[in-house]
Design brief:
About 55% of the residues lie in helices and about 15% in strands. The protein contains nine helices and nine strands. The strands form two sheets. The protein has a seven-stranded mixed β-sheet, sandwiched between helices. Strands 3-4 form a two-stranded antiparallel sheet.
């Protein structure tokens, strides 16, 4: 029989719901803040802030005297994907407006942030950076000296076995060295009780895991997490519908504009046709007159050419005939008998 304490904090609904697999673990995160009452929460790898904002909200709602730190370059990696500055800018804006007094975003690499934390000061460490075996091991080992005697370490994506993810492998090694338990929903979350001063509620969960009785607890938190994921999905659908309605409105406005333009164009075209049609008779009359003038001009030109040709022929005849007559006379003289020439006949 598991003596597991239930709490209203398990039902915390996030005010902001970034799309993330971590949404399924928010009920446990809220309850963890209640049972641990941490003074310092450090997150290695934040991305769009689903877990970071959940911790901030839990700390604020439960009035816990804690600071929440998000350490990330906000550039992405081979597992989370690479992205621009807009992810950081959006999260920073929300954090400053809602949780500036209890949280801090540290834009740097994990090892660069070590100097800003005293040894033995971190009560909750969330490891969610690059998910290779080597990276996860380095994150835990380099930050281990910063952990407090009450420290709880969370390893996200402990059930993912693809694309070079190695959290599962490191978890299988480290989980046997400390009291621990693992949630298998939404990519998995390993919970490692590193500090010696642990709340009884967490030790009970670790004992249930050792006794093979953790499945019911896993299903319980999975059901709570699904509720949050369903709400997030509904919000995304509603956002998509709102965007679709906006696009429909824009398209309707564009259609109305084009219809008005078409009607205006049609009216202008009809008006133009009417003007042209009204001018057709005068245009036809002008064309007919022009045609007659062309015909008359061609006739006059033809007559002038005929007259010029006749005059030229007459001139040629007038100049050539006398010469031909003279030549003919001379020829006659040559061919007349000599006695006719002598007699002048």
């Amino acid at each position: 029989m598991i003596d597991f304490p239930l709490s209203p904090n398990m039902l915390m609904m996030p005010r902001k719901l970034p799309h993330s697999a971590w949404l399924g673990h928010i009920p446990f995160a809220s309850w963890l803040v209640e049972v641990v009452r941490p003074k310092s929460i450090v997150e290695l790898g934040t991305h769009n802030g689903a877990s970071f904002l959940a911790f901030c909200q839990a700390v604020e709602t439960q009035q816990v005297s804690a600071r929440v730190f998000a350490v990330d370059t906000w550039e992405g990696d081979e597992h989370a994907g690479f992205y621009g500055n807009e992810i950081y800018a959006e999260l920073r804006d929300y954090q400053q407006r809602h949780y500036a007094g209890i949280s801090e975003m540290m834009r740097m690499r994990f090892n660069q942030a070590l100097e800003y934390f005293a040894d033995g000061s971190v009560d909750v460490l969330h490891v969610d950076g690059l998910h290779t075996y080597e990276a996860v091991r380095e994150d835990f080992e380099t930050w281990r000296r910063k952990l407090s005697p009450r420290a709880v370490v969370l390893f996200h994506d402990s059930c993912v076995r693809e694309r070079g993810f190695g959290v599962w492998q490191y978890w299988s090694e480290i989980s046997s060295q400390f009291p621990s338990f693992e949630f298998t929903h939404t990519h998995g979350l390993g919970v490692l009780l590193v500090g010696e001063e642990q709340p009884q509620a967490l030790l009970q969960l670790a004992q249930a895991a050792r006794d093979g009785l953790f499945a019911t607890i896993n299903q319980f938190f999975d059901a709570l997490g699904r509720n949050i994921k369903n709400v997030e999905e509904i919000e995304r659908v509603n956002h998509g519908l709102a965007a679709a309605h906006g696009e429909i409105g824009r398209l309707n406005a564009e259609e109305a504009r084009l219809r008005a333009l078409l009607e205006k164009s049609s009216y202008a075209t009809e008006e133009h046709y009417a003007i042209v049609e009204s001018q057709l008779p005068s245009l036809a009359q002008g064309l007919s007159l022009l045609e007659r003038r062309v015909i008359e001009g061609m006739s006059e030109t033809r007559q002038a050419l005929d007259h010029s040709r006749e005059a030229s022929v007459a001139n040629v005849v007038a100049s050539v005939i006398p010469r031909l007559d003279e030549q003919d006379r001379k020829l006659n003289l040559l061919v007349r008998p000599w006695w006719r020439r002598a007699l002048g006949r």
